[in-house]
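Standup notes
- DV: blocked on the single-chain target, sequence here:
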Amino acid sequence: MSRNKKVLTGTHFEMGNWACAEGAIAAGCNFVAGYPITPASEVANRLAARLPRVNGTFLQTEDEIGAICSAIGASWVGCKAMTVTSGPGISLMQENIGFAVATETPLVIIDVQRFGPSTGVPSVGLAADMVQVARGSHGDYQIIALSPESPQEMFDLTIRAFSLAEAYRVPVFLMADGFIGHMREQIVIPEEDRTKIKQRKIAEQSVSVLDRRDFLDVKVAPMPVFGLGLKAHVTSSCHDEHGMRNLSDPAVMHTYVMNPIKKIVNHRDDIVQVEDDCIDAEVALVSYGTVSRSARAAAGLARKNGLKVGTFRMLTCWPFPDKEIRQLAENVEYMLVLENNTGQMYPYIKAEAAHACRVSFLGPQTLGQIHDPEYILSHLNRR
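- DV (later): unblocked, structure below
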């Protein structure tokens, strides 16, 4: 282990939630607000102990609404800010997720998903919130959502989440689940290297807010962080590029919605990551998150049985990897979508792939249980 007290470099055997907390610290996170909720509480517990030791702040709020509001406020005074929760908390945060989108606030939201709906089964993992995080708040907008499959990726993708949030001034979700959050595996924390983490652009001093473009730039506007002597106007109501409220000009209204969307869509090649292991495959097992581990094991069994099966994993779920799915569909005969839910991403995948190959969905035999590789193989043998 490194003598560096801030980043605990070296090899560890720890749970995914621990790795997520350490990834946040490695990314430079210095403010976290949260409310206890299973199966995400270990992230908050770890950060409550660690952040004060590295000149950061952890705030336990009265509820999840207070948590996301506090994180948004911290971001606007220049902090790298994060909140952590599970499905019921995401439901409570939706209005303020929309606020963060509208004000182009850099923010990381950790969602360690659980079996639902309502309070569901707090201790059981499920990829239950995949569409909710992208479509749950009202209006048209774009966010970024990453999906880890291991404790190591809980560390790696937390860092990437901060980098993307800072670069594009947008809420970024890490879509883990209770299985990955509580799984213990080897985690390698490399030497501290902040150069790999993108930093937000800060607005320059000017006489008037009308001399700057603080918002609605598809190339990402510099942020008028509070406390630096910048005069700035921030509103979640429809506003122009200077942040000035305008509820009557059709061109301003159009830009208010479209430019933050374009900001993400135009940079989607930098944002979207997939793992494609379908060279020479006739069948593709498409997955994300925890079930990707089962997909990889099932593909190995299938190849031993003479089947040409490969795996395709979405590390980025939002923005949706439509281009990559279309390309995959043109190179295989059959696509089997595996999700640890009842098929939340399946309609999006099928819409992009059905023109070129057969597509079907396979959920777990029992919800709340990970796919048995033999169960996947038996389905492939019957196709």
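- Follow-up: The chain has two domains: 10-196, 274-382.
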